[in-house]
Amino acid sequence: SGGGKSSALKMLEDAGFYCVDNLPVSLVEKFAELVFVPGSEISKVALGLDVRSDQSFQDATRVLEKLKSDGYKLEILFMEADENVLIKRYKETRRIHPLALDGRVEDGVGRERQVLEKIRRQADYVIDTSHLLTRELKEELDRYSIIRIVTAVERADVVVLVIDATEGVTEQDAKIAGIAHDRGKGMIVAVNKWDAIEKNDKTIYEFSRKVREVLSFMPYAEILFISAETGQRLGKLFETIDMVIENQTLRIQTGVLNEIIMEATAMQQPPSDKGKRLKIFYVTQVAVKPPTFVIFVNDKELMHFSYTRYLENRIRDTFGFKGTSLKLIIRERKDQG
Fold first, then answer.
1. For residues 89 and 78, what is the distance between their CA atoms, to the nearest angstrom?
2. Considering Cα of 179, then 194, then 192, then 36, what sign does the dihedral take?
């Protein structure tokens, strides 16, 4: 989720809800299909939807009723609405729990937590019109942000890092990417608010280059340019998530893998030191998420980092593995001299 997530939605995330902000109403059904799958650990979901018009409000309500009738357990839907629309709908239906209808929560963290606890127990649909974040609440959220990030990343197979096109990759964005990389997660960088950028025929190239420079430790990451507000390329985002999941779980037959490695060593001779040359006996894949390969050699001290990267690139050239890190483990087999 990108910046600007409401205070209440962040607190619900702390309370164990799976949270997604700025989700277009048109993608709610697709989202539910992806999240509520057999064996999923996700049971409580909070969505931040923009329903600032009568039509979007009606669409959201219709979709949610359909999902509930289909058996999806959306315990809470979190909408950010225009105050006038909210009040009008609340008076008409009495089915929406009004949170801070005056548009503000000013009496501190404790009061807001009480309101949210009540919502968690009672509400099916929740609307947040609180646009003011108290200083105390912001500081509290900041303290817990890194814990939430690590927990969310460890639970994920694929991390979608949403960055603001008007800001570029921030220090916090880079930290999140580093956490995902260290844990071998699939990685997609979604550049949001792309509709707000003035563009020419080189804009995407230049922006991609800057992203790659900052996130140079993960050249495998997929980059998409989207707009949550207009829905631009959001369908492509879900397709890319599916692709990265497939790559995270892709297995390569040992025979095919070793043919590629043999060709690679023939094209570029392994390194040597003091008259002793590195020999690669064979390679096998031992795990997925991320795809993990063990390379058996005569002396692992001879395996220079640059040659390991060369072999990784040859594997990627052949099998793709877009959007996912690869883990290469070097082991010695002395008995094959």
1. 15
2. negative
Q: Is 186 helix (H, G, I), strand (E, B) or coil?
A: strand
Tokens of 307: 């040659």
Contact 161, 180 (CB under 8 A): yes
Tokens representing residue 53 in the block: 């018009």
CA-based nearest residue to 189, from 152, 250, 244: 244
CA gyration radius, the chain: 24
Q: What is the pLDDT of residues 212-256, one digit of tens each?
A: 999 999 999 999 999 888 888 888 888 999 999 999 999 999 999
Q: What is the pTM of this model?
A: 0.58
- Kindly give, in sequence order, each residue whose CB lies less than 8 Å from that of residue 115, ignoring residues fewer than 6 positions away: 8, 99, 100, 105
State how far Cα 12 lies from the chain centre.
18
Q: How far apart are CA 187 and CA 217, in angstroms?
A: 12
**DSSP state string for 102-146:** TS---SHHHHHHHHHHHHHHH-SEEEE------HHHHHHHHHHHH
AA identity, residue 139: E
Residue type (1 letter), 65? E
User: Which residues have C-beta within 8 Å of that of residue 40, sequence separation ≥ 6?
Assistant: none
The tokens describing 233, both together, are 């390329």
